[in-house]
Automatic annotation (TrEMBL):
This is Methyltransferase family protein. SUPFAM superfamilies: S-adenosyl-L-methionine-dependent methyltransferases (SSF53335). The lineage of its organism: Bacteria, Pseudomonadati, Pseudomonadota, Betaproteobacteria, Rhodocyclales. Residues 6-65 form the Methyltransferase putative zinc binding domain. It comes from Azonexus fungiphilus. Residues 252-389 form the C-methyltransferase domain.
Length: 407
């Protein structure tokens, strides 16, 4: 479905600023039996709202299609980086708010419960995850994190109210997936204690554009937040921001601390000034962004073709979701990349969506492989260190191409 109004302010003044062609769902790694069926393929385009500055996908894929139709493959415990990140997240929240030990702490889109498990680890036992994916919420419950298998919507308000007011409401990388942010904030408002806090993390639009992180764009990421439109949307829903942290996580994110009522702290104004001085909400900025994106594609395709012509065998490292936007945008398939090696049991044995490259376990990398293209470039140093004994020549195209372009 084509989106005709801004997903935050409902303005009809929207302009297409990014076009990456047709893409499947980047998070849906395919088991062999699904290869015979039709695969979702939807234009991956971003629009810029001329009224509030919000950036969002112009074509929507239903949330049920995204999270409940097939097993969801992202498991927040699957990398050391994310485990350490969630520990730091819980420490940061407890630094601004130390609720009573029996306080209700809820995580929206809790995945397998990694974030909540850190609160459990310091004595907060009254935690609850809300997770729409059936297979993932079952894993959370098995790991000892109480979890409701549902979307965070008005349908579960009564259930939550029965447990008491929420003192700490959390979400990591979820508000960018929510089709209707206003509805999510309304639900949050209904369940949050008057003196409670709602702390969430989302990827930051400024980092995406500055870092040319086009591979973090995919259908599951509906929203690309800048502080200007986000703070306006929060204010409309009755929330104020009292702190913002900038993080390296997910190629650049913001951790936004909010509470009910009040006005935004000064940091909001200074971040908006910074965004405006970068011209973040201007179409011209995105035209230059798309030029850099095309440069990455043509450089990578030529480089890989040369390796193949010289007799090399190229493999991929890390079946990350963002890798799928990269592979599909660059039109790379199993003719070029023999397979992708990954450590997650949720992905091994499946195929990458769209590009249909088989995913194998790290330990099954064969001796004929000569070159390794690292897909999750934000954790490239860690992956290179882990696989350094294999004697592969590593290639991190997004980083190398862009570094060369600026020299
Ligand atoms: Zn808008």
């Amino acid at each position: 479905m084509k989106i005709k109004k801004c997903r935050l302010c409902q303005s009809e003044h929207i302009e297409k600023v990014v076009d990456l062609g047709f893409h499947p769902l980047a998070d849906t790694f395919l088991p062999e039996e699904l290869l015979l069926g039709p695969e979702v393929s939807v234009p991956l385009q971003l629009g810029l709202c001329r009224s509030c500055g919000h950036v969002f996908t112009l074509y929507s894929v239903s949330a049920v299609e995204r999270y409940q139709k097939q097993d969801y493959s992202y498991d927040s415990s699957n990398s050391k980086v994310s485990i350490a990140h969630f520990k730091e997240f819980s420490d940061a929240v407890l630094a601004v708010k130390q609720p009573e030990k029996n306080s209700l702490i809820v995580d929206i889109g809790s995945n397998i419960g990694t974030l909540l498990s850190h609160f459990q680890g310091v004595g907060y036992d009254n935690v609850l995850g809300v997770e729409p994916s059936g297979n993932i919420s079952a894993l959370a419950i098995k790991a000892g994190v109480p979890t409701i298998n549902d979307f965070f919507s008005t349908a579960i308000v009564e259930h939550l109210k029965g447990l008491g007011a929420v003192q700490v409401l959390l979400s990591a990388n979820v508000l960018n997936h929510a089709d209707d942010l206003g509805a999510l904030l309304e639900t949050a408002k209904q369940v949050l204690a008057e003196d409670g806090v709602f702390v969430f993390e989302v990827p930051y639009l400024l980092d995406l554009v500055q870092g040319t992180a086009f591979d973090t764009i995919y259908h599951e990421h509906v929203h690309y937040y800048g502080i200007q439109p986000l703070s306006a949307a929060l204010q409309r829903s009755g929330f104020s921001i009292f702190q913002v942290d900038r993080l390296d996580y997910m190629c650049g994110s913001i951790r936004v601390y909010t509470r009910l009522g009040g006005t935004h702290a000064q940091v909001v104004e200074s971040m908006i000034e910074n965004e405006r001085s970068f011209r973040l909400y201007e179409a011209e900025t995105f035209r230059a962004f798309m030029e850099r994106v095309r440069k990455v594609k043509t450089t990578v395709v030529a480089h890989l073709a040369n390796i193949k012509l010289a007799g090399g065998k190229i493999i991929g490292i890390g079946a990350a979701t963002k890798g799928n936007t990269f592979l599909n945008y660059c039109r790379l398939d199993a003719d070029v990349i023999a397979y992708v090696a990954d450590a997650s049991p949720l992905k091994i044995g499946k195929m990458t969506p769209g590009s249909h490259i088989p995913i194998i376990a790290d330990q099954d990398i064969d001796e004929a492989a000569t070159h390794a293209l690292i897909l999750p470039w934000n954790i490239a140093p860690m992956l290179q260190a882990k696989l350094s004994h294999l004697g592969l020549e590593f290639y991190v195209p997004q980083v190398e191409t862009l570094n060369n372009a600026t020299h």
